[in-house]
Design a protein that fits this description.
Strand order of the largest sheet: 2-3-1-4-11-5
Number of domains: 2
CATH superfamily of the largest domain: Periplasmic binding protein-like II
Largest sheet: 6 strands, mixed
CATH architecture of the largest domain: 3-Layer(aba) Sandwich
Number of strands: 11
Radius of gyration: 20 Å
Distance between the termini: 28 Å
Structural class: alpha/beta
Amino acid sequence: MEKALRIALTKGRLEKDTIGLLEKIGYDCTAVKEKGRKLILPVPDGNLEVVLAKANDVITYVEHGVCDLGVVGKDTISEMQGTFFELVDLGFGKCRFALAAKKGSPFYGGYKVKTVATKYPNITRSFFESKGMDVDIVKIEGSVELAPLLGLADGIVDIVETGSTLKANGLEVIEDIVPVSARLIVNTVSMKLRQKEIENFVSLIEKTL
């Protein structure tokens, strides 16, 4: 039997949605669902091996070729900007990047250079560069909503799903930046060496979607 295609999945909701998709194709994902503490799991009837990882690591593993494929959010792809092929928009894990600020605050007014807090400095920089605006970017690892409340930033750039966290903290969306969803990515060398298998797998996904 040919070596299994190795696919890295982002742990959490994207993992669950991807497993759901693989089951719709008809694969038996029992081993993945009953994983316990294991991080590498077989899907034997699909000749797949699933690797569970954090989003940034999914990209690292695919880029370095230790995984052939990966499922990761467009947010991580845009922020990390790695070398791989993006094959399919899987349509789940939908949310959006948005600029938000304190309710009623005139973010775009005045001459002062604005300070923006975010977990995504590259996306934030590109967004403001496209507007021809200079901003100071402060990278925050935790709850980015705190930054304007504590007076550290004039606004934030973050992922927004329902907007309820913003609302609960007295913030509002000033502008939507870009929609986000889960994508299937592939290692550039795997795409050459295992093209037929990958194309077959992708075509099963596309039919199922």
